[in-house]
Every structure is written in C-alpha cells, then in structure tokens.
Amino acid sequence: MKLADFLSDTRTRFETHLLSTFQPSPSQHLASAIHYSLLNGGKRLRPALVRAAALACEHDNDDWLVPATAIEVIHVYSLIHDDLPAMDDDDLRRGKPTNHKAFDEATAILAGDALQAEAFQLLANAVNFNDAQVRRMLISISAGAGHQGMVGGQMLDILAEKQNGTLEQLETIHRLKTGALIKAALTLGALCQKNVSQETLEQLENYGDAIGLAFQITDDILDVTSSTEVLGKPQGSDLDGNKTTYVSLLGLTGAEHHAQQQFSLAIESLTNMGLNESSLLWQLAEYILNREY
Amino acid sequence: MKLADFLSDTRTRFETHLLSTFQPSPSQHLASAIHYSLLNGGKRLRPALVRAAALACEHDNDDWLVPATAIEVIHVYSLIHDDLPAMDDDDLRRGKPTNHKAFDEATAILAGDALQAEAFQLLANAVNFNDAQVRRMLISISAGAGHQGMVGGQMLDILAEKQNGTLEQLETIHRLKTGALIKAALTLGALCQKNVSQETLEQLENYGDAIGLAFQITDDILDVTSSTEVLGKPQGSDLDGNKTTYVSLLGLTGAEHHAQQQFSLAIESLTNMGLNESSLLWQLAEYILNREY
What ipTM was assigned to the predicted interfaces of this complex? Predict the structure, then answer.
C-alpha cells in the first residue's frame, strides 16, 4: 500500500473507532472537553505506527485499533497538560484554542487525568487479546508514559529551558519525551501478534528510537524553515525562546545530517527484520524525515 | 487483631514497601516531588482496606502490598492535582506545604501524571499474580480512577461549587470522587485471592459504597465539630465557602443519622459474607464512622 493511502485509511478507521469507544461520562462538561481534544485532528502518526508494526509482524486485521487508541489517548492527554499555563502556556494547538482556553484550567487538568486512566482501561478491557498480551501491552505503555518515559522527558525539558544543554542532554530529553511513547506504539502493534519474537520487538524498539529522534530533529528544522501557516503554530518560536535545539547546537546543515543518520539507523533495523522499502514502516521513516509540517 | 495494631502494622509495612518500590527516575527533581507527596504521612486507609479485603477472603500473605501501593499512588496523585491553584488552591496538606508550593505548578502536574502511570505499571509488573488477576485488577483500578470514577467525581464537585446541590447530587459526587477508588481498593484486595467469588466481590462493593459515603459524611461533620489543629486544615472551611455538605443539607443531627445508616448498610454486607464484629473490615467501618480527624 502507498503511504498516503495508508495514512488516510488509518486515520479514517481510527477516528471512527475513537468515536465509538468512549463510554458515557457522568459529567457532560468533562466529556465535552475530552472529545474536544481527542477529535482535534492531528496526523494520527502513532496509530499509524501501531498498525504498521502489526502489519510488519504479519498481523493483518483490526486488532490494532484498541492499542492505537490507547497510545493516541496518552499522547492527547500529554498535549493538554503540556499546553497548560504552568507548562508551555500555549493558546493554540493545531490552529484551535487549547483545551484550557476552550474550557478552563481545572477542566483541562481533569480531562488529561481522565484520558490517561482511559488509555489503561481500554487496553485492560480489550477483548481481542489474551491476558498475557494485555499485560505485556500494559507494561509497555505504562513504562513509556511514566516518570521513566514521557513524563520524565517533559520534566527534563522544562528544567533544560533554564540552561544551555548538550547534544546528549537534548537526545535524552527527546528519547523520553517523544521516543518512549513511539517505541510503545511499535511494541503494542507487534504484540497484536501473539507469538512475536523478542528479536522483532528489539528491532522495532531500535527503529522507534531512531525515528523518534528523527522526528524531533525535523521538528527543530521546520521551526526555522517553515511558515507559521503551515506549522499551525508560530514559526521561529524555539529561537525566540533561546531554546536549545538541534539547529542551535549543530546548525541547519548539521541538523539535517543528524536526521539523516537517524533515518539510516531506522532503516538498518527494518533490514534486520527482513523488510524493504515497500514496507509501511520504511515509508513512515521517509515521511518523518521529509515531512513539511 | 485489634484495629489499632492492624493500622499501625499495615502502615509500617506499606511505607517500607513503598520506599523500595520506585525505580530511579531520569529527573531527580521529579523523583523528589513524587517522594515528597508519597511519604507525606496520611492514614493509609486505602492500603488498610486492600489488606483487610484480602484477609476477609482468607488470603493471608504479603500479596496485598502491590495493589495497596497502586491504589495509594492513585490517591496521592489525585491529592496533588486537587491542591493545584486551578483546582482547590490549597497551600497546606497534612500541615505541610502542598506539592506545588514545595516545588512548582509544572512539577506538581507532572508528579501527579507520573504517579498515575506508576500505579498501572506497578500492577502490570506484579509478579505475585497471574495474568488474569492482573487484568481484573487493572480493569477495576482504571475504572475507579477515570472519568466514570474519581476524575468524573472531581469534575462534578468543582461544577457543583457554583450552585446549591441536592442530597442525590452530593452522593453522586462522593460515590465517584471517593467511593470509586475505595471500592477498587476492596476489589483489588479480594482479587489477591485467585478464586474469589462474584458474590464476595459484590458484597465488598456494597460495603465500599457505604463506607465511602460514611467517610464523606463524617468529613463534613468533622469540618464543623473539630478544630483546625486536629484536622490539619482550617476548621469550618466548607461553611465559609458556602459549599453544599451533608451538614448544610441535613443539619448536624441529620448528618450523623445518615452516617449511621451507611454504617448499617456496610455491616449488612459484611454479615452477608459471614463476617462478624471481630473482622477488620467491621472494625474499619466503625473507625470511619467514629474517627476524630
């Protein structure tokens, strides 16, 4: 399948599933805030990674939908909390008011909290998997989301804003803040296949590590080279804030070279798995490297 | 065992376990904030409920420690977030500065987020239980913590502050905000026993529902009758804020009568399980009704 078709099909199927997933909430207000952020577009890159990993493990049915929803729900909760005034203090997300602007801060905090619980609840209740699969999925996603993963990275990122960081520190932050959940997405996709090998899981983790970094490096590059309209957020905002980025550390050409290196590492893992350039994971790595927003 | 000894023994064992539980964090700052709130005393009532439920199911070993930690970790995260300026805006918790006062708001938000993930991670990794037990525990705790449980109750509670509520609305809020996690504590304790019956789980849920309400009613009574020193928070704070409470709705005597009714319901469930007044769950119900802080 061509990547554009895959992404479009994944997005459609994912969003249809998403709408049918949430149980009624005792607070309509809270439900509205949750839906507001869940349905605020986005590339749905993580669901696509879950599905592509399942396909790479020759698991070709709709089982990917529940783990994809769990991963995306964690991602959405983290965006809601990251946007809060005490955190990044952002008013816009994908061109629309952030959750705490559309509702209020208390609601945004609770919507994020509820979404995190929901991710675990969805997986725990997933009927398509046996108890051992569910448990392995929950181990992976909780580790990716917690203080040794995404939240730890967000904390380091906030603390790093007050000082100039090294390349190593920057990569540690990104490995945790973005990479940990991307790796969990790939692991969950692979675990849709009951008998996935340890070797495959490790190659997918290496692939995830590399595309996670490539994604962030590209983010930093786009902040300099793209426009506010295309990005949906103010262009040049990193430089204004004197933030340490791959571009500030390595220059534009150096950052592009570094992204290319990560791409090569990702491809190496896929080759080890016996996949070639027609595979969706390969095309996704190319997409992450070459994306324009 | 006498309740005082049980609570003291449970607390000691629980806190020793808690200290040994957390993996190193990539951010020492985040780890400090997490430890600060985790180790800030408290009655450890929920761990005691987990253990007492396990004992009521004739499961008498240390298996209760991991589920007790998971439940308490959820409780502690909820307190950190509830205390935030955008929520209840409290400066003190058990006589010490709240997390966002001791650290800052961003750290407090992230510490809460990390703790929630940690609760699920601890259970998913619990070696003492089989995959089916782990899954049932995760279903219970995630439902108790999410938008249909604790977080939903917190949202309704915040919205209710702007209007006068009925007794039914107040009970709905408390059933969700406090009761859902108390019920999960009892369920997790019972699930330590591999072959616990559905009947036992239902009786424990009824018991949890009743003592959860009794706990809240007693809270409202103590706010009027106790002193700031004993409570560790300003006495009469509910009345100052014109908050709807059991006392404002029913009067002091009516509230005491209502608490007694809930106590009777709790005892009825225990009797159905074949337990008597020497059982710890019975003593815990008495303690919740008669506590002084």
Answer: 0.95
